[in-house]
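Sorry to interrupt, but I need a hand with the structure work. Can you supply me with one protein entry, sequence and fold together? No commentary is needed, just the two lines. Leave the record below and I will have a look.
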Amino acid sequence: MKSLLTAILVLFWAGQSRADIGVSPLREVLDDKTRQVHFVVSNPTSRIMDGRASWIDLTATETGYREAVIGTRRQLSAAPYLTLSPAHFRLEPGARITVTVRLRDAQRAPAGERRSHLLIETGAARTLLRKAGDRGLQVDIGAGVSVPVILRGSGKAGAKIENTRLLRDSDGMLLLSTSIKPVGKHSTFGRLVATFHPDANDTASHRLAERENVAGYPDAERRTVELPLGFFSLGRGELTLRYEGAGEFQGRIFDERRFDITPPE
């Protein structure tokens, strides 16, 4: 399927956050065959870190997550089916520990998909913030990181690419905005890849942009993703946007869309 995209101007800002704690991998999936997974928590700081592991239930939204309300939590939460250990830990500077998540003994994964987020929190540490003058300001700062843990029963995963637009960022550079619409009872996971083929026959296609760790969750109608393209203009040609599977979906193509690009007059 092809559509016509023309560039229009839009402003956007992106925020960034940083926590002094490391957790990997970024997600894990359990089912009746894979009943146990492991997360590595690391302390990259120069101080001793006291931490704890617990669960938090978050509802997926178009652009991120929000805390799940009670009614949604009953339908969504994977935590009642899982155990985790250790719940508390202490890490020396540069040390790491493994947190294990298991499907409870004799428990089978329910139909469809449930999700809870493993929350790793550290106790507040007194930190010196510099300010103008001879003195600093002592503040207590804690850190927290959450990663999704997905519990799957029967069902299938699928997704469609929708609402694709070619925009511009605050510097005038082209920006591709698109949405992933989940289809099925299971979430999807993968990468978005944008390529461009100019109209000139002797010019090869080239990759414009790639966005990793793109998930589509059944509890969100769509997930909107932006890909900076790094060009002021593409010229005339064909843009291809593909949603490729990663992780357990490696090698699968969820959806692909092609667009004729016509520069504005």
Summary: The radius of gyration is 22 Å.
